Every structure is written in structure tokens, then in C-alpha cells.
Amino acid sequence: MIKRRKDELTELRSRGIETFAYEFDITSNSKKIKDEFVDDEKKEVKIAGRIMALRKMGKASFAHIQDEFGRIQIYLRKDDIKEQYTAFKLMDIGDIIGVEGYTFKTKTGEISVHVTNLTLLTKSLRPLPISKETVDEEGNIVIHDQFADIELRYRQRYVDLIVNPEVRDVFVLRSKITSAMRRFLEDNGYLEVETPILQPLYGGAAAKPFVTHHNALDTELYLRIADELYLKRLIVGGFNGVFEISKDFRNEGMDKTHNPEFTMMELYVPFKDYNWMMSFVEKMILNICENVFGKTKFNYDGMNIDFAPKWKRVSMIEAIEQKTGVNVLNADEKTLKDTAKKLGCDISEINGKAKLIDEIFSIAIQPELIEPSFVIDYPVELSPLAKKHRNIEGVVERFEGYVAGREICNAFSELNDPIDQKKRFDEQARFKAEGDEEAHQIDNDFIRALEYGMPPTAGLGIGIDRLVMLLTNQTSIRDVIFFPQMKNITK
RNA sequence: GGGCGCGUAGCUCAGUGGUAGAGCAUCUGCCUUUUAAGCAGAGGGUCGGUGGUUCGAUACCACCCGCGCUCACCA
Fold this sequence. Notes:
The chain is 33% helix and 27% strand. It is α+β, with helices and mostly antiparallel strands and 491 residues long. It starts with a helix and ends in a 19-residue tail after the last helix. The chain binds one RNA strand of 75 nucleotides through helix 1, strand 1, strand 2, strand 3 and strand 6.
């Protein structure tokens, strides 16, 4: 099949036709033509696009070409374009062409372009897995033989984007969401910064890192699992609010909500605490919903969600107590284990009160948090970088945002007491010694930074991929990442 | 990593212990308002890979590769 197309390419070239042109100026596009069409007005247009459907008939032909905004029909007649028509007969579905012509409406009422000049822009050598569309009695578009192999769609996203236009829409929305978020953060006076991806120590989250090696320094480096510790160093340095939108990397399993590399937004604002941050998150999400979607009510996987403030606030400890009757802060480890077992958790590999509490929470409470909610005040052992609660013993000033039973953000009043921070790191080191692979590393330079003094600071992390999933109603993270991680195949 | 399922033409899929089929796509011819264009004809497959059972395997068995669902893991 590819050979046949190469033969066509040779034939076109022998006629002096450029098969990979250099440029083409356009004056319109498929959508604009349809939007601005007025009956009986022959408007001159120049458009370019990929041939997606072809109906060649002797001395006249119809085709649909597709550009970024959709498809439009073109009409070509031998009488009009002479020898270009002969060349057109050597063109295929998949070829990219530029056409000049005037708009009109066919007998059957389809707005089309009557071509007066045809230019081949790119000859396509590989056949597209093209599908066909029909319209049923109720006006629904029925797609036949759609390119549907999930594996191939991810591996060859370029093909997916050509033949499944709704895929493009999700990624356009993704871009608009990050763009709206960035604008909102900038409008609030915060500075977008970049910090190291290659780090000699990893930190800021509980996760296993990817390890790499720097040859010249002959040293191990880690791909960051979070931006946190560097951004807080910048707050020490005196910036009045910094944020970073970038990839983090975690060396863990992959599933519908986890990709080894994913996009995180982290924000640190001095002189603020987690209460302030909660309302800031509400405002930011509201802003994105309104600016990108013009609404606050969404449906996600059958669940109705309204992002309008004010989100529910739920104390983690109180929520568990209400549900199970156990106050997990005061309970001993045995009570926690019994509670967890009663809920059906497999606790054979869970050690320590904090992790048990976390497990109980994820089983008993998390799935019920459908409407946007903040879960507040976490056990101190789970949060080595968060500040102790000003009133409640044993917990930190931390919240996580949950929507549709999924975590979408994590934030706290940042721990800025270097002596306490040192203690927390030491505690994490003990966990590590006891076999917790994800315990935090000790970062002495970070402690040194805190010793110079970091103002009281509120910090936030939002998983962009998961936020985009929620707002675009996608249930797999792979559908909001252009090139999700796949196993290598040697072919 | 465990369990279940899947892998047949470019795409979507049927199929059988006797060496493979459909529609669309492709190619040839006809066709100047078609639209899943039409009509007439044609080509196209190491049936995911490697072994095994068998006279004979795409089918049965084992292993491997890849994918999906799910569980585990995972702030």
C-alpha cells in the first residue's frame, strides 16, 4: 500500500508537481466558512487541510478536507482546474492540500468550496485508518469502523488526533485549563519559576523516585517527585509568592489515575495559612470553570458536581469518628487495626498508627466525598513538612481537596520551624530504617534555609492531569496525556 | 506482581483440527452536484512470536511479547 503511494508520488513529481510544498497562505478555515456563509454569496477563500473523504466521479469530484476546526466539502471540476484535475486523481485520503475557490451550497444543502486552484502541500504515504460517518433517523452521527484499538491510539496519537476529533477537544481544554490557572496565579501577583528536575536528594512527597546518573559528576541524581523544597527555599529568599507548573516523576505502578510522569502545580504564598489557601483554591477552581467552561456544574462519570464555593470542610478525625465511632487520635494501634479490618482493609503490610488512619480514611470516607470537599487536619506522622495545628495536639494544619471521591489537591500551613523540621526528618529516617521505602529523605540544606527564617507560608499542590480528567469527564489519565507511558515494543 | 480476557487484511470484525472470509479502505475501468456516492472487475494475510501435540495447527497445549479490565501497589 505504501509502495502504491510512493509510485503516485513519483508520478506526480515527474509531472513537475511539488509533493512536499514549502508554504501556503490561507484566508479562512472550515469553521469560519460555515459560520459566515450567506446564501448566494460566492465568497473567495483559500484554505488548507487533509483529505478525509473522497468521491471521485469522472470529470468532477467531491472531497472533505479537515483542518483544526473541522471538515468542509470541496468540489472540483475538470473544466475549472484543467490539468490540476488529472493530478488530483493521483491524490489520496490523507494528503494535505491547499485550495483556492469560492463558497457555495450544493443541491443537498451542504456548504462547500468550489475549487478554482488546487495545490498539493504534502503527499501522504501511509494509509489512514479512516472511518465513515452516517446520520441516523434521529440525527445522531454514527461512526463506522472507527479507529478504536486503545493501544494503537496511544502509541500513534498522531493518527488518533487525525481520525478521532473529540480527542483533540480534550487536549485543547487541557491547555485552556492550565492557561487559565497560570493567568489567575499571575493576576494574583505570584511569580512563575523553574526549579531543578534533576535533584541530588528527592523530597516533598512520599514516593519512590527514578534514579539516574550524571557522568561528569559521577553521581546519582533523582528525577524530582515534587517541587516543594526548592520552592520553599525561594520563599526564604524573599519572593512574594511563587508557583511552578511542571512534570514530577514517581517510580510506581501505572493505572487509570497514575502515570509515571505527571503534571503538578505547586504554589507557595508567604504570610498565609491553610485556611487562606482553602478559599484561594475555591476561587481559583471557580475562575477556571467560569473562564474555560462558562459553568460550575459538571457531570463526572455519572456524578453531579458543582464547583461553586463554598466547598464542604470535613475534619479527617471527626469524619472517621462519625463513621466508625472511633477517635483515631486517641485510639491505640490495636483498636485501629480492628477498625481497619472491620472495614475490610488488608492491613498485613501496614505499620504504624498514621498509615492505619490513612487507610481507614481512604476506605471509609474518601469514596463518599463526591461534591468538592476539603478534608482538614491530618496526623502529624503523615505530613513531615506541615506545621503542627495551632490548637489540636497530634495533627497538622493540612487539607486535601476531594472531588468525585478523588484527591485533587494537597496543601498545608508550611512547617517553618527548623528545629521541628529536623525532628520530623529524623522521624522519617527512622521509618525508612524500619523499611518504609517512601519515607522522606533528610535534606540538611533545606533545614539550613529554614534556619535563616522562612515567613509563615501556605503551600499547595494540584495534580493537573486529575483536575483535567474531572473537568473533561475522562476516566483514564491516559486520555488527558498525549503520550502516556507504554511498554517498549521491539519491532 | 496476581486473576480474568483479548491479539485474524490498512481499519472494524466473522470463522474453522484439513493451510482463511465480509464490509470499508486500496488498485483498474465508467461516471460533471456527490456525501457510508454508484456500477463492473482485481489485488491484498509469515491468523502476535517461539516451541509442542498431530499425518496436518490460525484453531488444542506450554512459554514469551503486547494490550485491556481488575486486585495489589500508589498522598
